[in-house]
Amino acid sequence: MIEVAADVFFLQTANTSYWFARTEHGHLEHLHYGPLLSPQHSSALQVKRTIELGSSVVYAPGDTAYSLDAVPLEYSGIGQGDYRLSPVEVFTEFGTDTDFTYRSHRILPGTVPAVGLPTADGGAGVETLEVTLADEVAGLELVLLYTVFPEVDVITRRTILRNTGDSPAEIVKLASLQLDLPDRGFTVRSFDGGWIHEAHAHDRPLSPGVFSIGSTTGASSNRHNPGTLLLARDADDDHGWVYGVNLVYSGNHATSFERDAHGSVRVLSGIHPQAFRWILAPGEGFEAPEAVLAFSAEGVNGLSDRMHRFVREHVTPRAHRDVERPVVYNSWEAAFFDIDEKRLLGLAKQAAKLGVELFVIDDGWFAGRADDTAALGDYAVDAKKFPAGLGAFVNKVGKLGMACGIWVEPEMVSENSELFRAHPEWMLRVPGKTPREGRHQQVLDLCNPAVRDYLVEQLGALIDDNGFGYVKWDMNRHIAAAYSPHVPHPGMTAHAYMLGLYDVIARVFGPRPEVLLEMCSSGGNRFDLGMLRYAAMIWTSDDTDPIERLSIQGGIAQLYPPSVISAHVSASPHQQTLRDTPLSTRFNVAAFGCLGYEYDLDFLTAEEKREITEQIAFYKEHRRTFQFGRFRRIPSGTEHRVIWQVGEGDAAIVGNFQRGVRAAPERDILPVAGLHPDAVYRVDAKPQRLMLERLGALVNHVSPVKLDPGGLVMNVVRKHKSLPDAVESYRGTGALLAVGIRLEMQFAGTGHTPALRMLGDFGSTLYTVVREDTP
Length: 775
Ligand code: DGJ
Description:
Elements: E1 2-5, E2 8-12, E3 16-22, E4 28-35, E5 88-91, E6 101-109, E7 127-135, E8 140-149, E9 154-163, E10 169-182, E11 187-192, E12 200-205, E13 209-215, E14 224-231, E15 242-247, E16 253-259, E17 264-271, E18 278-280, E19 285-287, E20 291-296, H1 299-315, E21 328-330, H2 332-335, H3 341-354, E22 358-361, H4 390-399, E23 403-408, E24 412-413, H5 418-422, E25 442-443, H6 449-466, E26 470-473, H7 493-509, E27 516-519, H8 529-532, E28 537-539, H9 546-556, E29 565-570, H10 583-590, E30 594-598, H11 606-621, H12 623-628, E31 631-634, E32 641-648, E33 651-658, E34 669-670, E35 680-685, E36 688-691, H13 712-720, E37 722-725, E38 729-733, H14 734-739, E39 741-742, E40 764-771
Parallel strand pairs: 21-22, 21-30, 22-23, 23-26, 26-27, 27-28, 28-29, 29-30
Antiparallel strand pairs: 1-2, 2-3, 3-4, 5-10, 6-7, 7-8, 8-9, 9-19, 9-20, 10-17, 10-18, 11-12, 11-14, 13-16, 14-15, 15-20, 16-17, 24-25, 31-32, 32-33, 33-40, 34-39, 35-38, 35-40, 36-37
Helix pairs in contact: 6-7, 9-10
The protein binds (2R,3S,4R,5S)-2-(hydroxymethyl)piperidine-3,4,5-triol.
């Protein structure tokens, strides 16, 4: 709900309020963002301007206490006395001096879509407040858009700058969002990393000065996700005030947090200003990407829940919004480039028997693609690998009861390709300089309309001619030479590239809404809300080691829901870490996302096949809870144990993961959150197998005959026999389970019973929690 009364703007969601007021000099003063307040008595929230402070610049003669440096502002300028970082830097005839003051406002139903940029989708009760400010001397008009999503407790913000003067203006910086908050002992949490270690959460207490994260790689990047959190003093997973900021954008971005000398914190978020320029001819406007804000008074889990519901209900593509994602088999880690119809069909037959629903042909299917040095940009199928064509393969997979999907990397070109030979001018490069390669490939110039048309045509034909129901869209290098002759100023290239990319994706998938699009960029190099406006899920990381994934998925899930987190089970020891982990743990972690397998199925033992078949059946049975249930991190009290929960109310699933074993392990407690306090629940460990090789020589304690643990007989036995693992069952009321179940003991070398928890290093268990009494 949006209300405007006596120059105060009240933006209300179900549980939060965002207020600001027009000051007597026409600036917008931020009053409050936090818990829901009834829209009255706002003056107590105004910053008191009682006296003039030394060394401050006074805005208006006769009002000596009015210094912009001390006013929490909705959007500041430069040169008027506010010396904090400005959200806007635009050169006009008189330099960068800007003073934006109120002109008008209106309330519009629904959202206001941006031109060429993805923005969140509307829904019940959604409204937008449009406030127009202006600096008439500079010849600039600034439009602030606030869209209120009441049911999910999210407010989005956008900024549009228009040139109302007579000469061109040059934008250097235009933040999507400025948020000035009183410092509440804030800690900034960012999600950082790199290839195969994306989205690790890092906390830093704010202190005087500026802390910023961002990306200049041309993508939202695996270095710093655009989403960040601000935790007030003493906030934790379940308590305290937490703010979340994110961007609906996939390119270069920057978010800064500035703590000033007066106890105020300024958050700015938007396109990264490095090397950015946008030329505005008279009459033209520029739209900054949409920024997303959420607040929770119930800790990080409360904040995550709001962001998750926003993504599920207002971001992901409508055709897939509430639709369960299929169980995927992907050829990459099984075969890499060494694929052909025979090999893939062999894998597909086995995958179908295990219960897989979607078979994906990854890299290596097009002519000339024997490795990563050639053929990107070309779309002709390799006739030696697929003599009957891709369509015939799709049909064969269909007869096995699975849909079929295909991998593409449309933004790239190999210099050794038919496309490059025909159009060497189609790639991004700085004239006269050697173009720098990454993974032996160059980036196509998506600012060029001819390139975009080529991609739209090729991708459309690939999908339609062969009947693909799914596309994995990859992007495997950063942008280096961001120069295109197709934009009026070189500083426009990086953003124009993003507009070009969104244009291609919209033109390919807009007319084919039923096609499931999974985004990927060497794993999670472009995991953002911009991509999620088109893609129902994103490949989270090339790292499928479940222990690494506890940090990667554990980080990304603070901002994005499990229904968009693509997570696969792969071979062990792991191909990047050499870590040897139980098959049960690989599944137990991947199940907290969109499940897939990426595995050479030829090497599976009979016992592993049985285990995977049961895993997939279990996942399908609980898929709605895994993908769409409320996700929480449950505090375990120690670093070496991670607890995740999905679902609440009548049913939930809890995962207990052990990063590393300790001798004579502690007595673990497993709390379950969000249940009805008086209802009675049954808690059962999901049955899983303890593979005999995990026991080594200990196998002789359970074997009727003595076995050489490294011998031939053992090698045969282990393929067909295993021990039941995690035979545990508990019962209690919701209130009791919230206190925590005292779990069965862990293995300590002194005996074995079926209920003993054989976790060791990297062991884990899933528990189903089901209400027993009739509601
Ligand atoms: C990088 C992706 O992240 C992988 O999953 C795989 O698709 C390869 N590219 C293929 O080249």
